[in-house]
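A note from the maintainers: we've had questions about how concatenated examples are separated. There is no special marker in the raw files; a new sequence line simply starts the next protein. For clarity in this README we add a label.
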Amino acid sequence: QVQLEESGGGLVQAGASLRLSCAASGRTVSRYAMGWFRQAPGKGREFVAAADWSADVTDYADSVKGRFTISRDNAKNTVYLQMNSLKPEDTAVYYCAARRTMFSSRAIEAYDYWGQGTQVTVSS
């Protein structure tokens, strides 16, 4: 089993930056693809970013491309989401997810493990 714990969320003003962390425990995720998803109030969960096991291949939702960067430190069993130029529409609970394959996906159902989420609120 893999446990995922997100951290780094908070309340910021538009234009600010935040870095989310996702620490995995229970077993190494170095050969797992990792993803970030978010859920805004009253909306469904949506794909934000993903990285394959080595982070050589990354994928981003159009809404965050150029502003967000996913990275991973397999030695620390941790994945990051650097979020720059934040907008009020980025306000959501952000979830980290792990997929028991090396290759990432945008599909929620493709992921096997999920964290509890961390709140990001961007004020205008």
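[label: protein 2]
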Amino acid sequence: HVQLVESGGGSVQTGGSLTLSCTASGFTFGSYCMGWFRQVTGKEREAVARIIISTGSTWYADSVKGRFTISQDNSKNTLYLQMNSLKPEDTGMYYCAADRGSVCGSIAAWRWRNWGQGTQVTVS
């Protein structure tokens, strides 16, 4: 079964950087799309970035364009999110997600079926 394990969260000052990692197992990495979502307590989970593993095609939320970079290492079945110029509004629980098919065209969190446990990012 699909397993996703995030790491790399932490506390950082405004303007700082963090790199999140998501190690995937239980599925053919190259056949899926993967995404990073974040959630603040009391708010809906929102998409931050998405990548189609087979093509490398990416999508970013407007709020993170130019600051965040989503990437993959197929040899390690690992997804990354490089976050630069962090702002307090980037604070939240960051989740890695994986899916395939028509879901890959959606940024609606409710449609994605496979999730990691999350890693907390706090910017102050």
